[in-house]
Amino acid sequence: MGNGTGIGRVRGLGSAKHGASHWWRQRLTAGGNLLLVTWFVFSLFRLPLVDPATGALSHKVIVEWLSSPYVAVALLLMTINVFAHLKMGLQVFIEDYTHDQSRIAALVVLTLYSVAAGALAVFSILKIAFGGVPA
Q1: Pick the CATH number of 6-129 from 3.40.50.300, 1.20.1300.10, 1.10.3470.10, 3.30.450.20
Q2: What sections of the protein cross the membrane (predicted)?
């Protein structure tokens, strides 16, 4: 095993063996997003309009809709899936295009943002679903 040529330096090292699982997880979350966001859009379009002229939904209609266990669980799944997909996609972008010491800081900020925003969204959905918001 020489170290004089490029192939000599990498021969025998093999692959990192983690890229394929990350790629599959990203594709699975993309498929889940496709199904769950499609459900979300169609579900919103099926809600009754309060004022047909403006197309505005009332707060009461949204709270009643979200109080359904099926809607709350589907919305929770969608939220978790969207934030997981966001983190994975931006992580790949940061790893591919950031080549200095700011990469670690960017990955830490991305992880903190994903967890904090996802937790806030999950808390909000659960609060409405369990009746914590007055109509």
Answers
A1: 1.20.1300.10
A2: 28-45, 65-84, 104-130
The 10s digit of each residue's pLDDT in 21-36 is 888 999 999 999 999 9
Count of alpha carbons within 13 angstroms of residue 62, beta-carbon side: 12
Question: Cα separation of 81 and 66, whole Å?
Answer: 18
- Measured between alpha carbons, how far is 76 from 78 in angstroms, rounded to an integer? 5
pLDDT band at 41 (very low <50, low <70, confident <90, very high): very high
**Nearest CA to 84 among 107, 111, 104, 109?**
111
pTM beyond 0.90: the answer is: no
Interatomic CA distance for residues 43 and 130, integer angstroms: 20
Q: What is the model's pLDDT at position 131? A: 85
- Model confidence at 70, pLDDT cuts 50, 70, 90, reads very high
CA gap 126, 8 in Å, rounded: 56
